[in-house]
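Narrative of activities, Objective 1.

The group set out to show that a structural description can be obtained from nothing but a protein's sequence at a throughput compatible with the screening campaign. Below is one input-output pair from the validation batch, recorded exactly as produced.
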Amino acid sequence: MSKLVHRAEVAKLAALLAVPADELRYLEPLDTATIIELREQAADMLLDADREQLGRAARAVSRVPVSFVARIATRRVPPRLAARVAELLAPPRAVKLATRVPAEYVADMAPYIDPTRVTHLLAVAPIDTVEHVARILDARHDFHSMGRVVSHLDDARLRVAFDAVSDDSIVRTIPFVENSTGIDRILDRLNDERIIKILHFVDEQDRWVEILQLIAVVGTSQRARLAEILMNLDQTLRTHVLETVGTFNAWDVFFGLFGVLPQPGREYFAGLMAQRPTEFLESVVRAAVQESLWADLTWLVIAMPPHAGRNLLTICERIADETGSPGLEELVRQLHEVTDPKTPSAS
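Output recorded for this entry:
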């Protein structure tokens, strides 16, 4: 799995633990699946640590009129405690209470709520409350809370939430969305014009790495859509995408995009890569060896202009000799069969 996905999962864990991501750098050797498991276990531990006391608080709240609880909660109850009690309330009671507290207090609770435990609340939250909370979280730059919740909103509430926030928030929220289905749903609600506007904003801010994180996890149909949009951007922007891929060694993400492009698009990006220095092309081949991207590397050599393809094949031969990679040696052999002119047989 992409290093960019790993990076995003570490950021989610850091946000959950309320520590800077740099403090979790020691987790880098762990695989992405382990990071996800750690985050899920940490979330469960945070909730379960005081479950008995929270249960008593939830039962007490259930005996008091909703209007009184809402008034007292916003004045006296810390948002962290309110969020955890809300998760334990009976659904009808929790829904009534959620509609009585101000949007600002709901936004205060957002960082501490586990969305999987309050789906019944999110499903009936008033549309105007969703909009107000989204605007507040946007203003606070609380992208982690927004990212965790959006996967659990229905289509109407998801559309309202993302219509209410800035392009910057959309870009910075997506890495915190819990799964690829959630990201696909966000993109479904954004028309091409909005996505193009976002991509121009990303380019101005030099934030292409966040778009690469998105491309790494979206479904095939949305990846193909993004590829088509990228192909219609200015050449300068497309070049910046390629440069970011090289900087972060995100060649598995690039090839995922490359693979859904039509042939003219592949030839275009292959032509851009043909203009890059040898060190850049070497990084492509080494990434292919590390991730076993043999089919993708084959397509790249074939899609390049002939002279550039031969140059890349020469680089493959050198790295195959250096690393002894059986996969790369086989790729070189197959490419020679495809690209070398056939020797005419003697008559």
